[in-house]
Structure formats: C-alpha cells, structure tokens
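Quick start: what a row looks like.
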Amino acid sequence: MLVSLAIVITLPRQSGIRTFVVALILRLIFSCGPEPTLWLLGCITVIMKGVHIISLMGNYGTLEKHFVSIITDAELLYHFFYLLFCVFGVLLHPFFFSILLFDVVYREETLLNVIRSVTRNGRSIILTAVLALILVYMFSIIGYMFFRDDFLVPVDEEYSATATGGTTGEADCAEEPTVSHMVPPDVVEQVVQQTCSKLPTVGGSELAESGDGGEMKERGCDSMIMCIITTLNQGLRNGGGIGDILRAPSRKETLFVPRVIYDLLFFFIVIIIVLNLIFGVIIDTFADLRSEKQQKELILKNTCFVCGLNRSAFDNKTVSFEEHIKNEHNMWHYLYFIVLVKVKDPTEFTGPESYVHAMVKANIQDWFPRLRAMSLAAVDGDGEQIELRSLKNLLETNHIAVRELMTQIMELENKVPERRTMTEQRKQRQRHALLNPTTSTSYQFYPQL
C-alpha cells in the first residue's frame, strides 16, 4: 500500500490510483474484516452514485421532461436500480452487493454485445421457442397415446424416500435387522417384514427396480400433464432427445418400428433443427454486432471526428493524419470552444464567437469544417499555382509556334502567284517559238528569257 501510494504521489496516473485503491481495500479487509469493509464501501458507493444520478438528471434536464420519458430512460433506470441495491446491501443484507457485479456487463461493450445478441432478435428467438414448445406438445400427445409404458424415468432411491414424506423405517427395511439378546431372531425378522409391508407407496406412483445395479425408475407418463413435463424436461436436456430416457424396446415387440421413428423424429426435428435455429440466430446476431463494433472502431481510427476526412486524404501531404487530429482538428478543442461560448458573457463575444454561439443555440452544425482542412487547402493552393504556371508557359510556347506557322503560310501565299506568272510566260514563249521558227534560235541561246 505504501509503495502504491508513493507511485501515486510521484506519477499520478490512473493505473497507479487503481493499484492504491485495491491495496487499501485489502488492508481494510485484513484489519477490520470483510463485512465492515463491505459496509464502508457500500456507503461510499451510495454517496457517489447519488451524486452521479443528481448530476445526470441536471445535465439531461430530466425534471423538465414528461414522466413517461423519465421512466423509460434506460440509463437513468440502470443507475437508479444500482443505487437501490446499494441501499439494500447497506441496510438489509450484504449479499445484495453481489448483484452489483453485473455492472461489468454495462461497462464492457463486448459483454454488452453478448446480451444484445439475445435481445436484439428476441422476437425471432421467442417465436422459435414457441415452435419448439408446440412440437414438444405434439410429441407428448403421441407418447401418451402409444408409448405410455416406455416412459420410465430414473430416480434416486434416497431422494424419493425422503422427499415424498416417507419415514426412516423405509431406509431401515433395506438394512439387516439388529439381533437383540432379549428377543428371538425369528420374531425380529417377522416384525420387520410386517412393518415394511405396511409402508405407504412412494408418492402414489409405482417404482420399479431394474436388474442392473438396483436403479429405481418411475413412470413419467401416467397423465397428460406429467407426459408433457417429462418430454419437455428430459427431451430437451438430453443430447439424443427423448429416446435417451425411454425404455429400450425389443425388436420383437409390435411397436419397435414406431418407437424408432418416434425417437428419430424427435431428435432431428427438435434437437437438431429447432434448437440449432435458436443458436444460429444468437450466433449470427453476435457476429453482426462484432462486425459493427469493428467498423465503428475503424471509422474512429481512420476518420477525423470534426471534418470527416479519411486518413488517405493526408497521404503524401505536408501534414500527417495524426498531426491533423491532434493540432488542427482536435475534437476536445472544439468542445472547449463550445463550452466557452456558452459560459462567456455575450457582450464580450468576438465575431467568430457570436457566429458560433448563434449556431450552437439554434442546434446547427454548419460552422464545422465539413470535408475541409486548412492544411489541405494550403497544399492544394500551392499545387494549383504550379499547374497554372505550367499551363501559362505551355500556352506561350504554342502562341509562338502559331505565329511562326502563320508567317510561313503568308510567305508561301506570296510565292505561289509569282510561280504562276513565270509558268504562264514560259508557256507563251514556247507557243510563240512554235509559231515563229526564225526566233527559236534566239530562244535557245537565251533560255532564261
């Protein structure tokens, strides 16, 4: 205890405080005893739970709600019954504190999912159980009509002798008579036989002693109600169905084949199909709850609580996802800011504080940065500037190339008429030379003309 106290003083952490509390409780148990320690802890729990309920009602505004909404609030009812059992444990009996151990189910989500796996699809489970009861009732009717003599339920001999009001003389009948020196042995034996023959029948029902080991068996289907109870009790609790407790018939009996069909149908329909349907609904529900829990944990781990951006949005960026949720969009900072605008004097509000206060008062969440972050906006802005510069340079290059191309096209357009003129002049000279042969010699000497 002293070591844990030193750890709490030097390093005040939650684990160290818990260790100190456990050590202190153990010290009180060894010093004062279990019951005084339990009573002291119960009183402390009553005080703390009472303060907790009062603060919970104040935060939720319970007193301003309707009475129906108050009594249907599951969380408030849970804490109220917790306090009630604490009071019962302090005032009536300490064993009421044992019920408070179920608080671990409320605190641990995995155990809470185990309970929800039964309650979420409770309608399906209840309807399947009703189907099982109907089938058991039908098999009970068949057993009562045809196999009444086969319902021999094993019972304990001592339990049957004492529980049905028998005297101790029934147990003495199974023992050897004590030999007395005052009474002859034959007289003692005669008296014992007469006494045992006058003993009443156990419970008004017949008991049969089997040949192997002297096991006592009782008829369990002499009435319809007993047949239903026996089939429901023994049939559902045995792995092979009702056939495990019925008498094993001989193959020479007339009802041997119907008995085999009866046992197999009960086993396949009730034990394999119906019971596995109930188990399957529970297991599937638990698997769905577990997958939902994993999905929630994955979302909380990889998604920003404030803006809703995924972790992948911060890949290859200057700001990592951990830095974003720790510094830029810390959800506790937003909570502190909401508390600030609620407790601060409205006359001292700044512009953003006035805007947020109006939004919070109107229950509007538009002031949260939805799918936005300043770090991503800055990075995206720099990237856009770089892209704009590259596009501008590309446009200038294309403009220069287009100007050069236009210049070349204009030069070609100017050269084409000159070539056409020269070609026409050459054709005219050839035509003139053909018409005037005397001038052809001059054309030969001056071809450039």
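That is the whole record. Residues 109-156+215-302 form one domain. Residues 159-171, 179-183, 198-206, 439-449 have pLDDT under 50 and may be disordered.
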